[in-house]
Amino acid sequence: MTGSRRLEVETNGLDVIDDAERRGRPRQLFWPWFGANVSVLGLSYGSFTLGFGISFGQALVAGVVGILFSFLLCGFIAIAGKRGSAPTMLLSRAAFGVRGNRLPSAISWLLTVGWETVLAALATLATATVFERLGWGGGTPTKVVALVVVAALTVAAGVLGFDAIMKLQTWITWITGVLTVVYVILVAGDVHWEAVSALPSGSAQQWVGALVFLMTGFGLGWVNAAADYSRYLPRSSSSRGVVGWTTFGASVAPVVLLVFGLLLAGSSPDLNKAIAADPIGALTTLLPLWFLVPFAIVAVLGLVGGAVLDIYSSGLALLSAGLRIPRPAAALVDGVLMILGTIYIVFIGGEFLGQFQGFLVTLGVPVAAWCGVMLADVLLRRGDYAERELFDPAGRYGDVRLGPIALVLVATALGWGLVTNTSADWLKWQGYLLEPLGLGGREGAWAFANLGVLLALALGFLVTLLTRHRVRTQEAA
Questions:
Q1: Fewer CB atoms inside 10 A, N or C side of the chain?
Q2: Taking the mean position of all CA atoms in its chain, how far away is CA 39?
Q3: CATH number, domain at 97?
Q4: Within a 10 A sphere around the Cβ of 127, how many other Cβ atoms?
Q5: Would you say residue 221 lies in a domain?
Q6: Is Membrane tagged as a keyword (predicted)?
């Protein structure tokens, strides 16, 4: 997809990509999506999933279904990219209106900035843990240096843009892929099937909670960026190829890593507990000293791969939300916020897992609602977007479409009433519908199933399908 173009700063922001710049084949989507999701953080998700109190078999099914289904949503939304040759949150204007789309764009921006901050913080903590085990330090100076390196790689790629990201993700894919295989081989002896198979089964509500957590932690965290990389493909590219390569590239590594992570966490209660405090660093306790430096490389590069895609898409979302600056400047703004957030998490914040779950589920609800609307909108369309009218409030897509906006707001309000985040004090107001709807309240069996994410996704999708006349009218124009 990058062809033989020189590596330079990408000037395209919300622009529709010119025909001369569109190139490549759908299979090249494998590289950015695999590189962004091959992180060893996927191993830690095994511990997070077992934390819902379910057995290995239940966790395995929840993981495969949650990861594949959520990334399949990304694949379908990626179709919009090759049809419209524009960023995801610009194409969202077709559903919400030119200026009405600023609300979902702002939500998208918050999610991607939050994710890139989380990934940068994890890379910093993992590096400090490795250095501490090697006896090379591990305190504040090490964390500062690690933060500088991680931030430099992430921000530089985000500012340079598409071509730099495609090249970087290809290298990250190969390096992290090989070293991750070596890691799995080295720690395979720490898997004890008798302990894993003895894990007790959980209830249906606990299984649903794990499923929703995995959906929000994987595919639903990427849907708002799904078309940002397919937009450089020729419009004649196969839609099936776009869906297939996006889904496969994004999900293959997380599924494999999650399965092995389940085996490791299920084999050791001590490791399972340690991952909650330091999801990446805790994994080093199983390694021989000679592999700690390669592990640091695979951990940092894997997390940087995800952060790079996030900072690129967050910059585009910021522009779509109404900020009028060049795309590289938007990426730089987000980079500064990422650094400030990482400083808070690494040097000030408390336990990681509770805040992380709270962040995912809280923003996962409005993003799921937007995803439902956008997914139905994409599936209802039969032709390409009218590119110029995506910038014209008087055009066929309108200025502010109150129906879809109200739908997202209502779905979010209902969804927040059906999720709980007891481990994050600032989110205890959620779950206000669990008692009125007879679901046992904030302490009942359904309290941690996080049904609100599924409700928001389904409501946004179904209501948009029922109002298909809007899309038909737009295309007829």
A1: C
A2: 12
A3: 1.10.4160.10
A4: 25
A5: yes
A6: yes
Closest CA to 278 of 363, 361, 210, 356: 356
Residue type, 247: T
Neighbours of 219 (CB within 10 A): 27
Separation of alpha carbons 453 and 218, rounded Å: 13
| Total-model pTM | 0.89
Angle at 33 between CA 103 and CA 9, to 5 degrees: 75
Backbone dihedral angles phi then psi of residue 97, each to the nearest 5 degrees: 95, 160
Contact 49, 258 (CB under 8 A): yes
User: For the residues of 188-253, what is the DSSP string, one character each?
Assistant: GGG--HHHHHTPPP--HHHHHHHHHHHHHHTGGGTGGGTTTTGGGS-TTS-HHHHHHHHHHHHHHH
User: Letter for the amino acid at 401?
Assistant: R
What pLDDT, on the 0 to 100 scale, is given for residue 224?
Answer: 93
The single residue listed with the structure tokens 């939300």 is 321
Q: Which helix (H) or strand (E) holds 94?
A: helix 93-96
Query: Which segments in the chain show pLDDT lower than 50?
Result: 1-4
Q: Which residue has the tokens 């305190």?
A: 139
- Dihedral in degrees, nearest 10, Cα atoms 363, 368, 374, 376: -170
Backbone angles phi, psi at 3, to 5 degrees: 60, -140
Question: How far is 276 from 351, CA to CA, in rounded Å?
Answer: 8
Amino acid at 421: N
What is residue 5's three-state secondary structure? coil
317/165 Cα distance (integer angstroms):
17
DSSP 8-state secondary structure symbol assigned to residue 278: -
The tokens for 427 are 């989110």
pLDDT tens column, 300-356: 888 888 899 899 999 999 999 998 899 999 999 999 999 998 898 888 876 665 676
- Of residues 369, 391, 315, 321, the one with CA closest to residue 106: 321
Query: Per the structure, how many domains does the chain have?
Result: 1
pLDDT at 279: 83
121, 124, 129, 131: CA torsion to nearest 10: 180
Residue 311 lies in a domain: yes
Supply 4's token pair: 């033989």
Give the three-class secondary structure for 38: coil
Q: What is the pLDDT of residue 103?
A: 94
Tokens of 117: 């901050």
Structural domain span for residue 49: 22-476
Question: How many angstroms separate the CA atoms of 330 and 437, rounded?
Answer: 43
Q: Is residue 79 a part of any domain in this protein?
A: yes
